[in-house]
Design brief:
Elements lengths: L3 E4 L2 E4 L10 H5 L2 E9 L2 E3 L1 H15 L7 H14 L5 E8 L17 E8 L3 H9 L1 E7 L14 H12 L4 E5 L5 E4 L3 E5 L5 E3 L10 H13 L3 E3 L4 H6 L2 E6 L3 E8 L2 E2 L7 H13 L2 E2 L1
Parallel strand pairs: 7-8, 7-14, 11-12
Antiparallel strand pairs: 1-2, 1-6, 3-4, 3-5, 4-16, 5-6, 8-9, 10-11, 10-13, 13-14, 14-15
Helix pairs in contact: 6-8
The chain binds N-(5'-phosphopyridoxyl)-D-alanine.
The site of N-(5'-phosphopyridoxyl)-D-alanine has 14 residues, from helix 6 and strand 13.
Length: 286
C-alpha cells in the first residue's frame, strides 16, 4: 500500500490524501495518467513516460501541473518516502475541480495532480512469464482517441472482467475490420513463422506504449525484424509466438488466444529474449 501520497502540493498519509468531490476527473473522466515501473528504487523509462504525459496533456489542452523536472522530483520523493524498491508509480492529472459543467473551465483553473507509489514483489511477473498468459478477443468499443492515456477505462475494466471470466488474464480488442488493436492495458504483439515481430502501427486506436518503444529498441539491437502493421485474430492464432507489453508486465508471453494454443503452448524464444534484455536497454533513473 502507498503510505504517503502526493496530492496538489502536499505529501499526505494515504487515508488523508483526498481530492475535491467535483473534480473533473471523477465526474467527467477529464483526466490523464501514467504508470511507471519502479526497479531498485529508481524509475524505468521516465523520459518516455514524461514525454507521453506531456503529449496527453497537450492533446486535451490541460495545462501541465508543474515542470517535468519538478514532477520527476515528486515521483522520486514519493518512492523514497514509501521505501519502494520494486513496484509502480501511478500519476494522474485532471483538469481540476469546479461546479459540474461540460464547458471547459478557465485555463487558469489549477489541474489536480496525484502521485502515488506502490510496492510489488519483483518476482511476480517473472513467475507468470514462465508459463505465459491466455488472452480473449473482444470487440473494441472504446473511443476514437485511444492514443491519449485518459482515465476513461470502463471499456477496459469490462473487457478484462469478461476475459477473466473466460479464464484469460488479458483482453485483446478487435476493431470493426477484424484487426487486433491492443490489449485492454497492454500492447499486442505476434511473431510470424519467419521470426518477424509484428505489432500494430501507431494510430488513434492504440496507446503508444513506452514498453512497446523500448522493446523495439531491444529488437533492433538484437537484429530482429519488426513490422508495424495490423494483424487479425486468424494470423495471431497461427503465429509462432505472441506477447503483450506494458510497464507492469514488461514482456509477457501469450500462450493461448480464445483457447487456441499459440506455438507449442509455451512462451516463445524471441519473447524470452526480449524480456531478458529489456532492462539492459531501458532508461533507469535513480
Ligand atoms: N497500461 N495500451 C493500453 C490501453 C494501456 O493501458 C497500456 C498501459 C499500454 C502499455 O503502455 P506502457 O508500455 O506505456 O505501459 C498499452 C498501464 C500499465 C495501466 O493502465 O495500468
Amino acid at each position: 500500500m502507498s503510505r504517503i501520497v502526493y496530492v496538489n502540493g502536499a505529501y499526505k498519509p494515504y487515508a488523508q490524501a483526498t481530492i475535491h468531490v467535483e473534480d473533473r476527473g471523477f465526474q467527467l473522466s477529464d483526466a490523464i495518467y501514467e504508470v511507471i515501473e519502479i526497479r531498485d528504487g529508481g524509475l524505468v523509462d521516465a523520459t518516455r513516460h514524461l514525454a507521453r504525459l506531456a503529449r496527453s496533456l497537450a492533446e486535451l489542452s490541460i495545462p501541465p501541473p508543474m515542470s517535468e523536472r519538478a514532477l520527476l522530483q515528486v515521483m522520486h520523493t514519493v518512492i523514497r518516502r514509501n521505501r519502494v524498491r520494486d513496484g509502480i508509480v501511478y500519476m494522474q492529472v485532471s483538469r481540476g475541480a469546479g461546479p459540474r459543467d461540460f464547458a471547459l473551465p478557465p485555463p487558469t483553473t489549477p489541474p489536480t495532480l496525484v502521485v502515488l507509489a506502490r510496492a510489488q514483489r519483483r518476482g511476480w511477473s517473472a513467475e507468470l512469464a514462465e508459463t505465459g498468459i491466455a488472452v480473449k478477443t473482444i470487440p473494441d468499443n472504446r473511443w476514437g482517441r485511444c492514443d491519449i492515456k485518459t482515465v476513461m477505462l470502463l471499456p477496459a475494466v469490462l473487457a478484462k472482467d469478461e476475459a477473466r471470466r473466460a479464464g484469460a488474464r488479458e483482453a485483446w480488442f478487435v476493431d470493426a475490420e477484424g484487426g487486433i488493436t491492443e490489449g485492454a492495458s497492454s500492447n499486442a504483439w505476434i511473431v510470424t513463422g519467419d521470426g518477424t515481430l509484428v505489432t500494430r502501427q501507431l494510430d488513434h486506436h492504440i496507446l503508444p506504449g513506452v514498453t512497446r518503444a523500448t522493446v523495439m529498441d531491444v529488437a533492433k539491437r538484437e537484429g530482429f525484424k519488426i513490422e508495424q502493421r495490423t494483424f487479425n485474430r486468424d494470423e495471431a492464432i497461427k503465429a509462432r509466438e505472441a506477447f503483450v507489453t506494458s510497464a507492469t508486465n514488461i514482456v509477457m508471453p501469450v500462450v493461448k488466444i480464445d483457447n487456441a494454443v499459440i506455438g507449442d503452448g509455451r512462451p516463445g524464444e524471441l519473447t524470452r529474449q526480449l524480456r531478458l534484455r529489456f532492462h539492459q536497454v531501458a532508461e533507469f533513473s535513480a
